[in-house]
Amino acid sequence: MTTGPGAPLSGDLLRDLDERLCRLDLGEQGLPGALYQGDPPYGTASVSPDGPDGRTVPYQRAGGEDESVLGMGAALRDGRLTPLGLLDRTLERIARSDGEIRAWAHVDADAGIPAEPGWDGRPLHGIPVGVKDLIDVAGVPTGGGSHHLSGPGRERLPAADAGCVARLRAAGAVIVGKTTTHEYAFGGTTPPTRNPHDPARIPGGSSGGSAAAVAAGHVRVAFGSDTAGSVRIPSSYCGTVGLVPSPGRLPDDGVLPLSWSLDRVGLITASVEDLALSAYALGISPLIDLDGPATFEGVRIGVPIGALDEPIDPDVAEAVESAFATVRAMGGEIVEVEIPHGWAATAAGMTIILAECLDYHRERRRDGRDELFGADVRAMLDLGERVPAGAYVRAQRLRHVLRAEALAALSGVDVLAMPTMPCVAPRIEDANEGVLPVGGTRVSLAEAHLRYNVLANLAALPCATQPVGVDSAGLPIGLQWVAAPGDDERLITSMTSFSRHGR
After folding, report:
1. Residue 477: inside a domain
2. Residue of 132, 246, 271, 444 marked catalytic
3. Rounded Cα–Cα distance for residues 356 and 348 (Å)
């Protein structure tokens, strides 16, 4: 397997794939399948899994032009805004800055507007939302960032909304358009999208368009998808909030797959408050008390041993340590927890992704359309051809081990916390080389991106990220939270408490 400059994986990671993973003693552990996705106790939310069912958010705040989802809802309720006016404002913002940011693959200027001119009480009535161009929106092309799905005779034009988009519409949201994605979600850079904080840097991926659109102020809410960090990575790099709900909390039909046993639909929002309201509107979580006390009194937060070990940017480590100090000041307890096989998560995740993505694209490779893949995706598929069947089986078996270890760690604490990324958004040229500067050394892009993120996908746990400061250059830093299966409410509550500190 080829390594070196520009290679997607480092030599160390390839040795993990080839050797260390296959030497693990997994006992009699079997295959987990999809890790019971959709089964109790976390296959349905404590609110209706079919959407808001006519429920309303008790918007009580009034006043000026609040840009939040709550503020826009209040303005719609009071008649200071109309859904059409809000859409026009959104389209103007996109037109003003997307020539540089390039967060949108398709903008729908004729997006369906709710029939009522004002606010009809639904949680997201009239709120503009972006949808990752991997997710079907009826009548709008799904390009997947790929030449396979663009051009005469190749366009994918869905007749029906994906299940998660149907939830958005039921909540009253207005679909503004499709945000960019790395080709078939198979990468972490999302070209040609730029990071709104510094256009010389990547937004992360594969949901980089959704994070960039939110960070640029085009929309407050966008859908992404997350296989090994694809919601959390760009959220950390772009300074947005990201949530990957428990499996089953959002439908996954109508979404182009990357890795069927790891993929989940997720949310990217401009604030934790926006996230809490959107999660309620979509049936993910009950409505969190947005004005409750800011406290972690009696809450135990587990930090995996080694979470702040090098390589990590000093500014990232300092910001996360400061966040832990804030939690302690709010009455919380920080305790170390152990996930003994956590070191193997990246290798196992890459093995599964390579094998499952290769299977999905096998016919495209056989029927003469291989040249339509971008060079980076084609290189990864070539690598997938060389993943032994036994390594895939062992990686799937290892998921049971990692899930058991994560659940054991969570049994003594309320949530886990760790950095989302070991570094801030890298420059485009570094990302294109496939090697990122992290803490004074250089690390492969895959290792940097998956280090903290892929465990939650392997173990099928809800996870989220929120901004916790910036580095010396003003680039965002993210803090990741992970909760037990089905405990999405606790996850959002923890984020809400943290965001209210100091108000």
Report:
1. yes
2. 132
3. 12
